[in-house]
Amino acid sequence: MNVFSHPEFDFHEQVSFVCDAETGLRAIVAIHNTSRGPALGGCRMYPYASDDDALRDVLRLSRGMTYKSALANLDLGGGKSVIIGDPRKDKSDALLAAMGRALERLGGHYIAAEDSGTSVPDLKTMGRETRHVAGIASRTGFDGQPSTGDPSPVTAYGTFIGLKAAVKHRLGLDDLTGLKVAIQGVGNVGFRLARYLRESGAELWVYDVQPDNLRRAVDELGAHVASAEDILALPVDVIAPCALGAVLNDRSIPAIRAAIVAGAANNLLDRPEHDQALQQRGILYAPDFAINAGGIIDVFHERAGSSPETIRAHVDTIGDTLTEIFERADRSGRPTGEIANALAEERFRKHHPASDTAQRPVARAG
Ligand code: NAD
Q1: Is 53 exposed, middle or buried (0-12, 13-18, 19+ CB in 10 A)?
Q2: What is the rounded average pLDDT for all residues in the chain?
Q3: H or E stretch at 28
Q4: In this structure, which residue's CA is closest to atom 27 in ligand 1?
Q5: What is the pLDDT of residues 274-326, one digit of tens each?
Q6: What is the pLDDT of residue 355?
Q7: Does 216 sit in the ligand 1 pocket, CB within 6 Å?
C-alpha cells in the first residue's frame, strides 16, 4: 500500500493508522490541512473490501473537508476518519471507546463528527474518552428549535439559501412564486428543502425510491410525482439532487432541461470534467460542497457556543459565496466547480504547497 505516493495523498499533514487488539478496532485518521484550524470531519464506519479502499476513501474525503470548511470561511481544517468494519455487526461500545482514546492521542488536531455508519450516540460513546468529538450537544438550533446534533435541518436551510442565490443570478428572480423545481430524494434534507420552497410559492416535482417519503411530499406539500428516469430531465427551472452522488454524468447531463442544478447531495459530479460539460450546456451548477455546508457551519458554532442568530447569519453567507463563484465563473469563462476549488484554495492556501487546480482532482466531501 502506497501512502506518500498515493494518487489521493495531496500533501496530507498526517495519516494515522489505529489498531486496538482487544476490541478489533482498525481505523485510519487522515488530517489533510490545518492551516485554518483543527481538522474536523466525519467518522465513517464501513466494511471496506481492503485497506487500500479504506485509505483511498479517507484521503479523498479528508481533502474534501479542507475545501468545504475553507469555502465556508470556517476556522477549521479538513480531516476524516474511517473505521473498517460493518456497523451492523462489528460496532460495540468497547470499539467506540477505543476509537475515542485514539482521537484523544491525536491531541485535538482532528475532531470527529457523525457520518455514515456512525450516529450521535456512537459519538457520545467516543466522547467518554475524548473531548475531540463534535455535533453531539443538545441545544437550541439555528431556527430556534431544539437541536440534537442532526445536521439535516441546517443543511436544508443552507441549500435553500444557495438555491435562491442561483435563481437570482441566472433568472434574475428574488421571488420564487411559480418557480418549478424537481427534487431527487425527499429524505432528511430533500424534504425540508421542499418545504422551504413550497412555503416560498414554488411548484415541486419529486422522486424518491422510498414510497413513504414520496407520499409525505405529495400529501404535505402538494408535490407532483415524477419517475426515476425523468426527475433530472423535467422541463423545470431548477433540479435539486438530494439523494446520491455521481448523478451528474455522461447520461444525465445531455438530458437536463433545467437552467440550474442546486442540490445537497455530496459529490454530484461523476467525474471532474462534468463540471465543464454542465457549463457547455449553459446550466448553472451550484457546487455541492459550497451549497451543502450548513451542517459543518453548525458543528463549528456548536463548539464555539454561538447563538442561533450567529449560526443563521453564517449559513446565510452560503448565498454570498455562491454569488461570488457564479460571478467569477461568468467573468473568467471557467466552470463553477473549478472556481469553487480555486476560491477554497485561496482561503486555505497560505500554508499549502500545491495550487494548480487544473492538475488536481475535484474536491470531494462527505
Ligand atoms: P437521507 O437518507 O435522509 O435522504 C436521502 C433520500 O434519497 C432518501 O429518502 C432515499 O430514499 C432517497 N433515495 C435514495 N436513492 C435514491 C434514488 N436513486 N432516487 C431517488 N431517491 C433516492 O439523506 P440526507 O441526510 O437527506 O442526505 C441527502 C444527501 O445530502 C446525501 O447525499 C448526503 O450525503 C448529502 N448531505 C447531507 C447532509 C446532512 O446534513 N444530512 C450534509 C451534507 C450533504
Answers
A1: middle
A2: 95
A3: strand 25-33
A4: 189
A5: 999 999 999 999 999 999 999 999 999 999 999 999 999 999 999 999 999 99
A6: 45
A7: no
Instruction: Quote the strand ranges of 272-344, DSSP E.
Output: 284-285
CA distance 358 to 366: 22
Instruction: Evaluate: CB of 184 within 6 angstroms of ligand 1.
Output: yes
Task: Please identify every residue annotated as catalytic.
Answer: 80
By alpha-carbon position, which residue is closest to atom 40 of ligand 1?
152
In the chain, how many H helices and how many E strands?
11, 13
Tens digits of per-residue pLDDT, 244-272?
999 999 999 999 999 999 999 999 999 99
Whether 127 lines ligand 1, by a CB cut-off of 6 Å, is no
* Cβ(24) – ligand 1 distance below 6 Å: no
Name all domains of the chain by residue range, CATH numbers in brackets: 14-136 (3.40.50.10860), 152-293+323-347 (3.40.50.720)
Which residue spans within 185-245 are E strands per DSSP? 203-207, 224-225, 238-241
Q: Which atom of ligand 1 is nearest to the CA of 288?
A: 44
Q: Which atom of ligand 1 is nearest to the CA of 191?
A: 26
